[in-house]
Amino acid sequence: ELSNSAADSVQLPTVLAAVLRDAGADPKQVLADAGYRSEATFEQLREHPADLIVALGREGKKDVKIDAAKRPLCAAMAEKFASLETQSAYRKRKWLSEPPNAWVKSVLGFRQFNLRGLARAEAEWKLVCAALNLRRMAKMMFA
Known about the structure:
single chain, 143 residues, mainly alpha, 2 domains, two-stranded parallel sheet, 2 strands, 6% strand, globular
């Protein structure tokens, strides 16, 4: 999906609801970058059945200071990231979510929207995603 909100964090509950709606089940694990980190989002997803793994800052930056009194759920995520298992799971995000973005830019040559307005840009983005998926499906079928 596409939004005109700079903060990704408000989108995570909506995306997870769409996964449940479209796939018929909740994901077992959710890997999200630091843009999805927020105490309010963690509160909203407290009862979600997925194993939520959300980065606290840029990868490699280990000293993210979190006030546990003000942000207890973010502090709990920081504790979770101390485990090697969580760190290993999070590293998968690089090869799961980043390649489609690279394909859109490099293979399809899509670098900017041609249409203006949120509804038109959303429609253009859905066409780009459909083109990417059709191209990949064709390659799988005829490989």
